[in-house]
Amino acid sequence: MKLSTITIGCAVLFMATSCKNQPKEEVKAPVAEAPKPVPGTPIKFDSSKRYIYLTWDDSPQPPGTMVCMDLFRKEGVKATFFSVGMHAFDLRRKRLVDEIRNSYPQFLLGNHSYTHGFQDKYKSFYNLPDSAVNDFLKNEQELKVPVKIIRLPGCNSWVLDGEMKGQPSTKKVYEKLDALGYSVIGWDLEWRFLHGNVPVQSATEMAKEVNEKFEDALTVAPNAIVILAHDRMFAKPQYADSLSRFIDLLKSDPRNVFETIDHYPLIKYAVKDTLNKKH
Questions:
Q1: CB distance 91 to 37 below 8 Å
Q2: Listed residue (268, 267, 59) closest to 145, CA to CA
Q3: Phi, psi (5° rounding) for residue 35?
Q4: What's 55's domain CATH number?
Q5: Which pLDDT score is estimated for 6?
Q6: How far is the CA of 84 from the CAs of 78, 117, 143, 257, in angstroms?
Q7: Which of 60, 190, 195, 240 is most buried, with most CB under 10 Å away?
């Protein structure tokens, strides 16, 4: 059966009209991804808060490092891992360092020397300041440490904005680091250990010491406390439970804020000059 010319014409007209009346599909502009936070970017401090800096030394030290990272993630708190190059001697440990570095802003990778002070021979290490400085520079390169922040192994010394202090034996080293634009971070409170890895204080005792330091203004920077511990201390379940309890006690006070050490109020330098350059 043939369609008439009129019928065909009406069909074409209907299709054309329908097409004109169809709403145009909206073209959505691409959503720009938020830039990834850069270590060392300044933050705004709240004078009503108490800033807590969990700084863990000697990583990578599995399983302790992994236990601490998993616990910090679960608790939703920030921490800094001061890492040692000679401890990253296999692929598994190198990947652990990469994981710390890539987990910013929750975790920050810091510099704790390549040899851990010539493998704990601190007197020799600090008596050779040029070799000591080169040890830190090697560690920065090997581990790709993203900030100019160092913790001296075995010594509580500080290089801050307008202030340097520490043990006399380390002075030549931290003066050289200062001249190269590095900050050196010590600690206000240490979670001590016995027999290599057994925590001395309980979680309750540690929380009490934190509060006393704040209340008595016994911290280097006002309203800020740097806590030192070591990854290996929390490898066993009973000690990991103690760390979890400690964090829960600190979180119960609404004044407490956890931050990475690049956001320490007296930090002198954080971002490396080479941060935005290709390595």
A1: no
A2: 59
A3: -65, 145
A4: 3.20.20.370
A5: 43
A6: 20, 10, 8, 27
A7: 60
DSSP characters over 126-151: HH-HHHHHHHHHHHHHHHT--BSEE-
Helix, strand, coil shares, percent, the chain, to 5: 40, 15, 40
pLDDT class of 270 with cuts at 50, 70, 90:
low
* Mean pLDDT of all residues in 109-126: 98
18 falls within a domain: no
Stretch 156-181: mean pLDDT, rounded?
95
Residue 29: inside a domain:
no
Mean model confidence pLDDT for the chain: 89
Query: What range does the domain containing 225 cover?
Result: 50-263
pLDDT value for 9: 47
Cis peptide before 63 (omega within 30 of 0): yes
Q: Total domain count for the chain?
A: 1
Of 112, 182, 98, 180, nearest in space to 147 by CA:
182
Question: Is residue 41 domain-resident?
Answer: no
Identity (one letter) of the amino acid at 202? Answer: S
